[in-house]
Amino acid sequence: MKKVLKKLFDGMIMGLGFSLFCLVIAAIVFFFFIDFNTKASIVSKLQEKGLVEEVVQGPDKSASIVKRVYLSPPLPTPAGYKEVWVSNDSEFLQAMKQANRTGYTAIVLEDGIYNINNTIYITAEHIMVKSATGNPYDVVLKGTGMVKSGRVKGIFRVNANYFTLDGVTLTDVPNHLVQVAGEINASYPHFRHVIFQDAYEQLLKVSYNYKTQKSQDNKSLGGIVDGCIFQYTRGIGPNFYIGGVDALGAENWVVKDSIFRDIASPSDRIAQYAVHFWDNADNNIVTDNIFIDNDRAIGFGMRLPNRGIRYAHKGGVAKNNVIYHTNNGDPFADVGIMAEGNIGLTVADNIIFQMHPYENAIEYRWDNSDGIDISGNMVNKRIQGRDGAVASLNSNMEMLTLEQFLIEFHKKSDLLNVIDYKHPVEGRQ
Known about the structure:
Elements: H1 2-33, H2 36-48, E1 64-68, E2 82-86, H3 89-102, E3 105-109, E4 112-115, E5 120-122, E6 127-131, E7 139-142, E8 156-158, E9 163-166, E10 169-173, E11 178-181, E12 190-192, E13 195-199, E14 204-207, E15 224-226, E16 229-231, E17 245-248, E18 254-256, E19 259-261, E20 275-278, E21 281-282, E22 285-287, E23 290-292, E24 298-300, E25 313-314, E26 317-319, E27 322-325, E28 337-340, E29 342-348, E30 351-354, E31 360-365, E32 370-375, E33 378-379, E34 382-386, E35 392-394, H4 402-415, E36 418-424
Parallel strand pairs: 2-3, 3-6, 4-7, 5-8, 6-9, 7-10, 8-11, 9-12, 10-13, 11-14, 12-15, 13-16, 14-17, 15-18, 16-19, 17-20, 18-22, 19-23, 20-24, 21-25, 22-26, 23-27, 24-28, 25-29, 26-29, 27-30, 28-31, 29-32, 30-33, 31-34, 32-35
Antiparallel strand pairs: 1-36
């Protein structure tokens, strides 16, 4: 009798095991053949329940960069400026010291790599730094490494008005590549054809002192970011505290004809926006840019309690931008354009295609928002209000197909002379 029962029991175990095996195979087949949005939604729900570990995105095995053609020569040296040509580290640093004594100086960098071990402070007005060819691939200003550091180190800290940077690459620093000191009214910087890449914190920072009503009156005015590239060469950032253009209190800045790639957090929490204007910021324009695989592309405003600011962002335009997020596994991929607590903002004629699971392409948020106009945008996800916000919505399309998007994406890429978005970097494995 015991032998019979044992055989029955073994048979049941084998049958149950076979059934479970079939169910697992069926689940795997189902998982790989359902559409990506459904799959990602399932993974998200499993993560929320603690059944699947949170994804931590690793860097690409090899480095790559955006490759575009820069045909125009460097900006001409303005009348009244002294022009100084340099070809090595020591000549460059000596020229910078002299420029800070006199101002009205254009430093021309011959082709090569310049090692920058300490932050260069811009303390005099009307200083220009440019490459001899105007091509940012020809001149590299390289810091001490994209690693966490106890000391603040970047390439430039801009403490004076009318600083111009043209046709160079900035790379590998522990903090910001460039910090513009809005808290002391450093204004009218011009960044043209600059490649910003691989900083441990925000690539271009505009700082601001929000702590008192008096200090809030000091801000950076009239900055221009034109034809630049902002990127992380390993396909993801080193931590979450990163961004492209992160500007507090900025007024009348323009970010145009630039490319932002892989400003994305690898773990812990979401990265800051590829372009973000906030904390008493006014009338800033973000237009005709391309954004690829950033956690969040464009942000105006932010709701932060107990900061004493007067408004998050006032006025401003996000127009004619192309935003694309591929199915690349970034763990914090989020909204394309966000307006948080804005007073008077135009979001128009942007094209957004997101292959990740987040359900909204454009969001407007908080009940203190007013005068937001969202018109003529083409997206494949929702345009959605949150937390009591209202906006005027006109002539938007929320059913953009991949085929339609790619036509527009290639048009914009051609206009910005892009050859390759993932061009391999020799010697940087």
